[in-house]
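Slide 14.
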Amino acid sequence: MMQTVFHGDELPEGERFVRWNASSDELWMPTRLQSERTEDFGASMKLMELGAVQLSEVTLAPVESHRDPKLILQSDPEQLLLAFILSGSAGLEQSGRQTPLDAYDLTIYDTSRPFRAWTTSEQNTVMALHVPRALVPLPAHRTERLIATRMPGQEGAGGLLTKFLTELRSDTTQYRPTSAAHLGTVLVDLLTVLLGHHSDTDSAVPPESHRTALIRQIQDFVQSHLADPDLTPGSIASAHHISTRYLHRLFQDQGLTVASWIRSQRLESCRRDLADPRLRGEPLHLIGARWGFGAAQFSRAFRAEYGMSPSDYRQGR
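Slide 15: predicted structure.
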């Protein structure tokens, strides 16, 4: 779960900008900030530690951030940062390139090089993935080409990454250190595939990163087809141009089976519908049918998963 580490609304208006500058220097890296809204500057920050990787989300007013050689000498986390614009407008200038950014755009920048970054909308929300450069298994001269360039976050490898980021953003789970580190590894793999695709170095992307991205793609496909009663390992494999045998091996490597994972996702969708007060009058068999279950099959599977019948679960809400 992301933890709030700064909330400007809790401070007197006159102190917010100075305190934000100090907090971002401590939690991220030293930068020099400028804003025309220093008297009533609005900002908040959330963080999630995922092993060696850090995920942050900031919401802030229009501001400009500078990082120069002096500040780099002062402190350098030696990270590659992926910025994901959730809302508002922003921009980045580094390595002789400058790019404007809008909602669902992605870009990367390097903490060891001078940069200028800015937000321009009345309120802007940006997620940032902080990854030690040593964890990105691609040639540095290749990833350097992507610094301060815009990459789309609504399709392809970018879409896989942003979907996972938004899922983590809304997740309220308190992860154990080993689980958090695993999520960090998944994010690094998805970032590696994204950078490999946009730098024409797909061949340099480690097989495990490609495998992680494929699993995420398959899981997204299944999630969007849960209502299809004809969803089977064969149809999933065919949609992704792989053999059914390889599909089963991918899930076995995760300690899962394809059928059990589909069933658990369908049951979770049913559980959410049963807990939704807006659907309280909907017959149980229709809820089950919406997610690919026959009436008797739905009741048995739900009881086996949650220890009670669908009707008992609904009445207990």
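Speaker note: The domain at 3-224 is CATH 2.60.120.10 (Jelly Rolls).
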